[in-house]
Specification:
8 helices, extended, alpha+beta, 25 strands, single chain
Length: 546
């Protein structure tokens, strides 16, 4: 038998060599992935028989094994609007997340957007004896909840650790503070949570770090995993003679003898003279002489018909019509109600606080005691359909998660992004430039700043609308930036505007200082006054007031 022929790669076409090398690299990557992946679900095969749909009556949403729009790749699809969904996959063995690095990763595509709903996963801890997968619901205990959630003022990628207090045995939800926002497009996105042995947790979206936190830092989780060493004494009571008023009315002050509290704010102007040519006997409005009673008018059903009123033309050329009255003017003798000036309170003791006592629930911890993961569940309530879950991974190595992102998510994302660009171009929508993308990324990061948390929903809505503008320009971007800095300026320097005051109440050359209680009530009154002015009907101006 002759020797087999050897084929040199140099004799093959370059395209064939490229394909061969690509296959070798892909195979090597998948082998590396498999060696460090603890659990992986690609949904290439139908989920039925492996994942169990909850039989609880609240969960009527239908799960489907479906292709991602524009791809041959399959995923787990939320197929109906305004439904509750629950499905769970029990692992062959419980997975520990405490020893070494642990990576939780999955893909979600919001094919019809997400106005109100969740798209997160629950990593369930071992359940009580007798629990069955078909009983999975929102009460099923979990160890970690991770993923997108958006509705109303909520727009965040949740990361919640349910941790057991070793003193009390109580499980408490600890929420990551200031989590990243959910991408607003309809493309595939991959969410990654990396749990490190040094207590660090990283949240990545599409492989980019969006949040870094420490499990044991009170600045990163609410409530903190490690409780405060001291707490306010619940039995401590404020003494009856404790005076919290920093300022008080001067008890020795006396109202001046010439202070008239009954003087009117406005009086008639006695020096005013009726303008020459004023038509006392002419009304401001007269019946329209050209109006006629409609033919279908029924006096019994519609009442007695009256001609509509129109402005009296004679009043247009005259200084005014009707009874003339002197205009009002400010009363120089008006001083308003007298108030005693305020002075420092000699009995002021400050704002009372209960004394601190040792916290009976306090404990020390070197690392969080994260419960093992025995199952992975999806339990959501959403108003949108088209949510597609795919490539759920638990791994023990960051490189493994990265390899899956490169091989399973990245190709789909690039195809979807190019398709979106083409559709935008065909529809005449300007595609964001690289510079504009950086601006919006910066704006999203600013929206995640902690002290802007109260304004976050409005800011995110503004950014999303800006991204969707068909004729987006640098000017629009600059406008959004100005709005941001206006809010920051308002927060830093205060948001109250000084209202113009026509008449002020006077004291005996003394300014009345506001106490903390007065400030609260005065703020409410200012808002009420603003509402009254805004809602007041507009008065018709007449010449008789001239």
């Amino acid at each position: 038998m002759g020797e087999g022929k050897r084929v040199s790669l140099s004799l093959l076409p370059l395209s064939v060599v490229s394909v061969v090398f690509a296959l070798i690299i892909s195979f090597a990557s998948l082998q590396l992935c498999a060696s460090h992946s603890i659990f992986y679900e690609s949904f290439d095969d139908n989920f039925e028989g492996r994942w169990v749909v909850s039989e609880k009556e609240d969960y009527t949403g239908v799960w489907k094994h479906a292709k991602s729009d524009g791809h041959e790749d399959h995923g787990l699809l939320v197929s109906e609007k305004a439904k509750k969904y629950a499905i769970v996959k029990e692992l062959d063995e419980a997975v520990s997340l405490k020893d070494g690095t642990a990576v939780l990763q999955f893909e979600v595509r919001l094919q019809n957007g997400l106005e109100c709903g969740g798209a997160y996963l629950k990593y369930l801890r071992p359940q009580d004896a007798g629990w069955a997968s078909k009983e999975f619901d929102n009460e099923s205990p979990y160890s970690i909840m991770f993923g997108p959630d958006k509705c109303g003022s909520t727009n965040k990628v949740h990361f919640i650790l349910k941790h057991k207090n070793p003193k009390t045995g109580e499980y408490i939800e600890h929420h990551l503070k200031y989590p990243p926002s959910v991408p607003s497009d309809k493309l595939s996105h991959v969410y990654t949570a990396i749990l490190k042995p040094d207590n660090e947790v990283l949240i990545l979206i599409d492989g980019e770090e969006k949040k870094k936190a420490n499990f044991l830092s009170s600045e990163d989780f609410e409530p903190p995993i490690i409780p405060s060493q001291t707490i306010p004494d619940p039995d401590d009571k404020k003494p009856e003679d404790w005076d919290e008023r920093a300022k008080i009315p001067d008890p020795n002050a006396v109202k001046p003898d010439d202070w008239d509290e009954d003087a009117l704010m406005e009086i008639e102007d006695e020096e005013a003279v009726k303008p020459e040519g004023w038509l006392d006997d002419e009304p401001e409005e007269i019946e329209d002489p050209e109006a006629s009673k409609p033919e279908d008018w029924d006096d019994e059903e519609d009442g007695e018909w009256e001609a509509p009123k129109i402005e009296n033309q004679k009043c247009e050329i005259a200084p005014g019509c009707g009874e003339w009255k002197r205009p009002m003017k400010r009363n120089p003798a008006y001083k308003g109600k007298w108030h005693a000036p305020v002075i420092d309170n000699p009995n002021y003791k400050g704002i009372w606080k209960p004394q601190q006592i040792p916290n009976p629930d306090y404990f020390e911890l070197d690392q969080p005691d994260i419960e093992p993961v025995a199952a992975i569940g999806i339990e959501i309530w959403t108003m949108q359909d088209g949510i597609l879950f795919d490539n759920i991974l638990i791994a023990s190595d960051e490189k493994t998660a990265e390899s899956y992102r490169v091989t399973t998510w990245k190709p789909k994302f690039e195809v979807e992004k190019e398709k979106q660009k083409a559709e935008d171009a065909a529809a005449g929508v300007d595609v964001l430039s690289g510079f504009q993308h950086k601006i919006f990324e910066l704006l999203y990061k600013i929206a995640d700043v902690s002290f802007l948390n109260a304004y976050k929903p409005k800011l995110l809505d503004l950014i999303e609308k800006g991204e969707k503008q068909p004729k987006l320009t640098i000017g629009i971007l600059a406008s959004i930036v100005i709005v941001f800095f206006s809010i920051i300026f308002k927060i830093v320097f205060g948001g109250k505007k000084l209202k113009p005051v026509k008449v002020t109440e006077q004291t005996n050359n003394t300014t009345v200082a506001e106490t903390p209680n007065d400030q609260g009530s005065s703020g409410e009154k200012e808002e009420e006054n603003d509402k009254e002015v805004t809602n007041a009907p507009r008065k018709r101006s007449t010449r008789r007031e001239n």
